[in-house]
Amino acid sequence: MMKRPLFVFLRDSLRNSVIGLRRWCLVHAFGMNIGKGTIVSFKAYLDKSNPRGIHIGEKSYIAADSLVLSHDYINKRHVQTHIGRHVFIGAKAIILPGCDIADSVVVGAGAVVSEPVTESNVIVAGNPARIIKRNVRIGAFGQKKR
User: Fold this and answer.
1) Is the dihedral of CA 84, 60, 74, 49 positive or negative?
2) Which value, to the nearest 10 degrees, does the dihedral of the CA atoms of residues 67, 88, 35, 72 take?
3) DSSP state string for 35-63
4) Is residue 1 a part of any domain in this protein?
5) Band of the pLDDT at 1, cuts 50, 70, 90?
6) Closest by alpha carbon to 130, among 146, 114, 109?
7) Residue 116 maps to which CATH number?
8) In this predicted model, what pLDDT tens digit does every residue of 81-103 receive, in sequence order?
9) Strand ranges (DSSP E) for 1-121?
């Protein structure tokens, strides 16, 4: 096994510390419900207009430039947005207010989830997001099981 160079170790440690600090702030300062082991990219946007309306299960991953919304500005309503366990939200995906996502779901990059995803073990993609593959074995952080 090859040892990692020191700068790679330091870079990864710093990155993980910053992401952990951000998660701590989202949970404790804003009051979001984020499960243990969940990773929220530093560039992901979680709605702070209604932070208590965001619920994310454990061991999920929210990638860069993703949006998770829990309020509707036009209709002036605050709603609950639930994301299950072992979910992967791809880069630049948008989860609209009130759209719940079941456990073990992969949301493709750039997808716009405008309706709840009630089935588990599926991959959704597109605008609007539709199920493109069923019966996919999905583990922690939305990674495909073999």
Assistant:
1) positive
2) 30
3) -TT-EE-TT-EE-SSSGGGEEE-TT-EE-
4) no
5) low
6) 114
7) 2.160.10.10
8) 999 999 999 999 999 999 999 99
9) 33-34, 39-40, 45-46, 54-56, 61-62, 67-68, 71-72, 77-78, 81-83, 88-89, 94-95, 105-107, 112-113
Domain count, the chain: 1
Is 112 part of a structural domain of the chain? yes
Q: What does the pLDDT look like over 16-69, one tens digit per residue?
A: 898 889 889 999 999 999 999 999 998 999 999 999 999 999 999 999 999 999
User: Which amino acid is located at 49 in the chain?
Assistant: S
Dist. CA 50–CA 32, nearest whole Å = 9
Query: Structure pTM?
Result: 0.88
Q: Which domain range does residue 115 map to?
A: 6-142
Query: What contacts 39, CB < 8 A, 6 or more positions away?
Result: 19, 23, 60, 61, 62, 141
Length of the chain: 146
User: Is 134 among the domain residues?
Assistant: yes
Other C-beta atoms within 10 Å of 117: how many?
A: 21
Phi and psi angles of residue 18, each rounded to the nearest 5 degrees, phi first:
-65, -45
84 in a structural domain = yes
Give the burial class of 143: count Cβ atoms within 10 A of its Cβ; 0-12 exposed, 13-18 middle, 19 or more buried: middle
